[in-house]
Design brief:
By secondary structure, the protein is mainly beta. The chain is 7% helix and 38% strand. The chain starts with 33 loop residues before the first helix and ends in an 11-residue tail after the last strand.
């Protein structure tokens, strides 16, 4: 964990310091010029008006329409803080385990990092060292979406590795689920995984491939009916009733469909005059059935009702708490969200009240 607040820097990287002893310019007799005083009052009035607008609209911090209590950023995770790779590099995904641990796809370091629910580093895996210490027998190439089973097994979509890597509860590689041909040779680019019962759902550049829990291919769904073909979906989640949620990234929409592909609802980029979908990435389903997705172009997370109605959004662009730079994934556990803040090279954990009760606008 770390405090992300740092002194401001200009585009040259210099730190700006404010001298508390520095005073406004004085004229003869020690009086401020009326012109300077007038301009100062105008600026202060403008700042006051802007502050009132921010407080009334929520702009500049977050936008929340229907949440009674505002989300609270709790802490950030920037890396283990030790070893040969102490910091996270462009993490693409994160997931809660049933015990409350946080599993992170530390993509730039080709590994999975595990932290406690308080942000303490526990372990890492995904890079199996050779016995002679000269390198690695196996390394995740580009770990992205992941899911943790109740028994501790972890399924990781390895985009560049062309497989879903399956690890046991101790981080040992069990198998690699492939589609098409051999590992790494099929051109398959899995981006996210969801696991419900004995079914494994994997998004790739065309749609979603469905496998049995042991990795046997069953079938594909590459469009909802009716609907246009999916275009590079980046996230998927499966609800308790078996319906599938797809973050159809390049089409700029969230789609819910039955297991036969028939569409339940679709949320496009706009609701009225408001843009609610920019570039949707990872998606999850909260305990109350709300659908939450990370949006890279809106720099935050967006919450939809179980029927796809827009509820609210949280986040703005930046590097402080509650601010994001191209967030890529989100997962919910109770009222807690874990959000991958990709370009800030960190994970944020946010308390998001209301995720345990049915939303007002269903």
């Amino acid at each position: 964990m770390t405090n992300p607040d740092r002194p401001g820097r200009d585009h040259h990287g210099h730190v700006h310091h404010v001298d508390p002893q520095k005073k406004l310019p004085l004229l003869s007799g020690g009086l401020l010029s009326r012109r300077v005083l007038g301009r100062t009052m105008v600026v202060l009035a403008a700042l006051l008006i802007a502050l009132v607008l921010i407080l009334l609209t929520g702009r500049g911090t977050s936008e929340l329409l229907n949440t009674q209590a505002r989300p609270t950023p709790l802490f950030v995770i920037v890396g283990p803080g030790k070893g040969d790779a102490p910091l996270l590099i462009r993490p693409l995904a994160a997931a809660w385990s049933t015990s409350g641990q946080i599993f992170i796809s530390d993509t730039g370091n080709q590994r999975i990092c595990v932290f406690s629910d308080q942000g303490r580093f526990v372990r890492e895996f995904g890079r199996t060292k050779r016995g002679d210490g000269t390198g690695y027998d196996y390394t995740l190439q580009q770990p992205a979406g992941l899911v943790v089973r109740d028994d501790g097994r972890v399924y990781v979509a390895d985009v560049r590795g062309g497989c879903v890597a399956v690890f046991d509860a101790h981080g040992a590689l069990l198998k690699r689920v492939t589609y098409g041909s051999t590992v790494g040779g099929s051109g398959w680019t899995p981006t996210d995984v969801a696991l419900v019962g004995d079914r494994l759902y994997v998004t790739d550049s065309r749609g979603v491939a469905i496998f049995s829990g042991d990795g046997a291919f069953i079938r594909r769904i590459d469009r909802s009916q009716p609907g246009t073909p999916f275009s590079h979906p980046n996230g998927t989640a499966v609800r308790k009733d078996g319906s599938i949620i797809i973050a159809d990234t390049n089409n700029g929409r969230i789609v819910a469909m039955k297991t036969d592909g028939s569409r339940l609802w679709s949320t496009g980029p706009d609701v009225g005059k408001k843009r609610v979908v920019g570039l949707p990435r990872g998606v999850c389903v909260a305990a109350n059935g709300d659908v939450i997705f990370a949006d890279a172009f809106l720099f935050g997370v967006v919450r939809l009702s179980p029927s796809g109605a827009y509820l609210d959004s949280y986040g703005t662009r930046g590097g402080g708490l509650g601010e994001f730079s191209f967030p890529n994934d989100v997962d919910a556990r109770g009222e807690l969200l874990v959000v991958t803040d990709k370009e800030n090279n960190r994970i944020q954990v946010v308390k998001y009240p209301g995720l345990l009760k049915a939303s007002a606008n269903q």
